[in-house]
Amino acid sequence: MTPRTDIEAVETANTTFYEALERGDFEAVSDLWLPDDGDGEAPAVSCVHPGWPALSGRGEVLRSYALIMANTDYIQFFLTDVKVSVHADTALVSCTENILSGGPAEEGADLGPLVGQLVVATNVFRRTPDGWKLWSHHASPVLAETDDEEGGAGPEGGETPA
Amino acid sequence: MTPRTDIEAVETANTTFYEALERGDFEAVSDLWLPDDGDGEAPAVSCVHPGWPALSGRGEVLRSYALIMANTDYIQFFLTDVKVSVHADTALVSCTENILSGGPAEEGADLGPLVGQLVVATNVFRRTPDGWKLWSHHASPVLAETDDEEGGAGPEGGETPA
Asked: How far apart are alpha carbons A105 and A109 in whole angstroms?
């Protein structure tokens, strides 16, 4: 059995990550990603934003957040379906990100157009002396459900196989 | 430093997974997913197919593969950008799946229409006495690259934030 305290600590790390994104707090987001190993071997953190190819290594991942923050004036995450599985020093978190976001305002406007997005994320954390840190974040768009599909196991009814 | 043999064993497990999908070998795919714990606690395996919401637990995950196999007559994966990171008994694999697939043929035809897809996957494996087994698979569509986007860090240029 996983100690209840481990699951709570991972849930807190996961929530802290999204709160840092909501505040556009680049330092806090950086701090939540696994640091480079002392021996110079990269920890090979990995990040996939919705619709993006994979980004690899702290440099590439953190630059993507700087770019995203520069293009985002407002963002809010409503997390649902949060599932945590802990094994030894690794934790797997699956959650649905119900996102409301807006880009920079056009001239003369108070706020850019708001966009709602339904995204599913898999976050992998590792236990470190400084707490649980992100090893991998993979987020992808959930396409509209079509209830009349055979089986109904997913929106694409078996046509997208892996 | 991670022993070279660990990385090779994880690469082999990853390749074996995609070969089993290509053969439509449901037993082999089942065998590659982490088994339930002996104490009745679910290992909480997690799986996201491209465009799908998250599936959780062996039952839900394996049913989705049965459904996908029933709707897929032909599928081939060309893996590129395979990156492996091993920490203790957990391994993180990031790869691009260049997929060519076809559904069941229409009446009178030899093969259904073939579809190409560009998908990025994050696979998390755990070391077990029976080898490396899948704890999580998350696959998502890579949307078309637009080279004239600012920064070029991704196809959506910072508009999809997590």
From this structure: 6
> Residue B81: helix, strand or coil by DSSP?
strand
What is the interface size between A and B, counted as CB pairs within 8 Å?
242
Tokens representing A148? 């009349």
- Residue contact A50–B140, C-beta within 8 A: yes
Select from B92, B127, B99, B145 the least CA-distant residue to A138.
Answer: B92
Please provide the average confidence, as pLDDT, over all residues in chain B. Answer: 86
The residue of chain A with its CA nearest to that of B142 is A51
The verdict on a CB contact (< 8 Å) between B156 and A103 is no
- A135 and chain B: CB distance < 8 Å anywhere? yes
The pLDDT of residue B4 is above 90: no
pTM of the model: 0.86
Looking at the DSSP assignment, which residues form a beta bridge with residue A118? A98
Q: What are the structural domains, with CATH classification, of chain A? A: 3-142 (3.10.450.50)
Nearest Cβ partner of A122 from B64, B122, B143? B122
Q: What is the pLDDT of residues A90-146, one digit of tens each?
A: 999 999 999 999 877 777 777 778 899 999 999 999 999 999 999 999 999 999 765
Burial class of B71 by CB neighbour count within 10 A (0 to 12, 13 to 18, 19+): buried
B161 CB-near residues (< 8 Å, 6+ apart): A21, A49, A68, A72, A75, A99, A101
Residue B149 has pLDDT above 90, yes or no: no
Cα separation, A111 vs B49, in Å, equals 35
Asked if pLDDT for residue B104 goes beyond 80, the answer is no
- Portion of chain A with pLDDT greater than 70, in percent: 83
Residue A46 has pLDDT above 90, yes or no: yes
In A49-78, the residues whose Cβ lies within 8 Å of chain B are 49-56, 63-64, 67-68, 70-72, 75, 77
Per-residue HEC secondary structure of B66-77 comes to HHHHHCCCEEEE
